[in-house]
Amino acid sequence: MAAIETPYEWTAHPLREQPWKALLAVVLVLFCGVLVGVIVADPLVGPLAAGGAIVFLFFTLNRFFLPSKYSMDEHGVAVRYPLRSRTLRWAEIRRFVHDNQGGYVSPRHRGGALDTGGISLLFGGRGHQIIPLIEAAIDKTGHLSSAGAAGSHHENAQVSAAQADMPASGSGA
User: Fold this and answer.
1) Which of 86, 90, 148, 149 could form a disulfide with 99 if both were Cys (CB 3.0 to 4.6 A apart)?
2) Total-model pTM
């Protein structure tokens, strides 16, 4: 597949894309806020605590409630979340884990609790278009440890066992 010659952009907005989950999320956020207000049980502080809980949950779930804008070009992938932006160049990406709904590109070979330097991607129903573009762009740099929904590694991955810090497999390749 050819490199990404023109920027490929899309917007993911789970609130609009999944209306039943949106309704459930709004009800749960409001319920938690009311619960906090009832637990505090002070006529002045209770409503403030309830409002604070609702605002806290809204900002915690901002990527669900507010749209995220993604862009890919020949240099890399970028995202503008509601509260921050992040960019990774193709040469920096060492791992791409995905399913048809979304994925995660990371500069680290291995995942874990400390892997916060990557970008979470929501495909917004465009996974069949976006996944091949990302895999092709990463393949050109020679750095890919890609796992799909089944967890299998991408056939064309060119990450050496030394780079991946993993024992060599006996695949004979």
Assistant:
1) 149
2) 0.73
Are 16 and 23 spatial neighbours (Cβ–Cβ below 8 Å)?
no
Report domain extents, the chain: 12-64, 69-154
Q: Above 70 in pLDDT, residue 160?
A: no
In order of 22, 33, 58, 64, 122, the CA distances from 25 in angstroms are 5, 12, 10, 9, 18
| Closest by Cα among 22, 27, 7, 14 to 121 | 14
Report strand pairing: 95-98 vs 146-147: parallel
Q: Residue range 14-40: average pLDDT?
A: 96
For tokens 């024992």, the residue is: 167
Please state, in angstroms and as integers, the Cα–Cα distance from residue 131 to each residue in 48, 102, 105, 127, 161, following that order. Answer: 45, 9, 11, 6, 24
Would you give the DSSP letter of residue 101?
Answer: S
- Residue 152, pLDDT above cutoff 90: no
Q: What is the spatial distance between Cα 107 and Cα 104, in angstroms, rounded to a whole number?
A: 10
